[in-house]
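Hi V.,

You were right to ask for the full record rather than a summary. Here it is.
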Amino acid sequence: MQHNAGRIGLLEDDPIMGESLVQRLSLEGHKVQWWTRGEQALRELSAHVGDFDLVICDIRLPDMNGEDVFRQSCCESSTPFLFMSGYGDIDQAVRLMRSGAVDFITKPFEMATLLDRIASSLRSSPRDSLEGELGISASMRHVEMVLRRYASHTLPVLIQGETGTGKEICARFLHQVSGRASSPFMAVNCAAIPGELLESELFGHERGAFTGANQLHRGYAERAGDGILFLDEIGDMPIPLQTKLLRLIEDGHFHRLGSEMPIPFKARIVCATHQNVESEPGRFRQDLYFRLSALPVAILPLRERPEDILWLAQRFLDEITEARDTPVRGISALAEDVMLEHQWPGNARELRNRLERAAALSENTLLMPIDLFPDKRAGHVAGSVATLSEARDAAERRQIVRVLSMTNGQISEAARYLGVSRTTLWEKMTRFGIEGGARSEN
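Predicted structure:
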């Protein structure tokens, strides 16, 4: 299979493996620079900043640790690192991914697997323009890149963010881009199921296991097969069940209630929570937290990524108008201004709910502020009067965010619409605290 070619740095001290990798990667069309010592790699990376698309790095080197090479090179460039790790180095490799490494592969590996990882790493390089399927803000583009990076692994993923930020959407996106896309995605809301029933729902039960168990019940863990078991609001799981979940992760099997026969667990665990479970040792087992958070994802609230507000609103409205007979076809500029000023305490869920209600009740073609915010109908007065300078800045900020949403975060195109240079737009975005979007575009 032919992959996109790139300039690759290879740091491998084993002469046989190094030569084999150089030959195969060259045959695939990549330009490869081979180093056998960490100091040599650091000198080359420092002298040719930005020239490499990817560095494939062994963790154990004769003169220094691969982690030291990564951390020192990060001070001068953002070249992505893919680590080759032995079995005993997996914990270190996971720590490096959390620090920004793009991927790791465990030795021994099939060459086809390495080539797929290289292709994925090159696609997720900061030089590439991300598709923006989850949002156009820099933070959501980063989340998308991280999820794509995590997709090929089997370690648990922990998604954290406020209620309504889209944690389950991110989990489903991870499922969609992984090799498990054709397998089940089983979602369990740990906060919605009573604690005394959650164990049975999760692991299943045999007929007669307890009063009312009239037939065999296969739980979510079994029905997930080799797909994804998504545990939403994991912070609300009772402590006794947390212990059994930890045992499931460590042993790779479970038992239905009323049975002693072990059932293999083949699914990947993805969890989500709006709570800071790391700082709640009395309510959440710390050993379980460390196992679940091997690959973490953090989602910012909507108020901290205003670029996504109008982008999400248009996507939500398109879905709503397709499913419902409504005269609504768009959002007025006045409504957009109010949306950009709103703090969205309920995040994307609140945004969708307001659009759903507005589309159901409005008789206008374009939604007006009163349609989206009927709760602000009477007596809504700003807390203070803005100066002309503050009003001008607020208007500029709203227009920049509106055009960024319209151009899907493309800076050059947004600058052209706004009639300013790209540099001027960057300066204004920095001053107004607007995220960078697709900064890597050419």
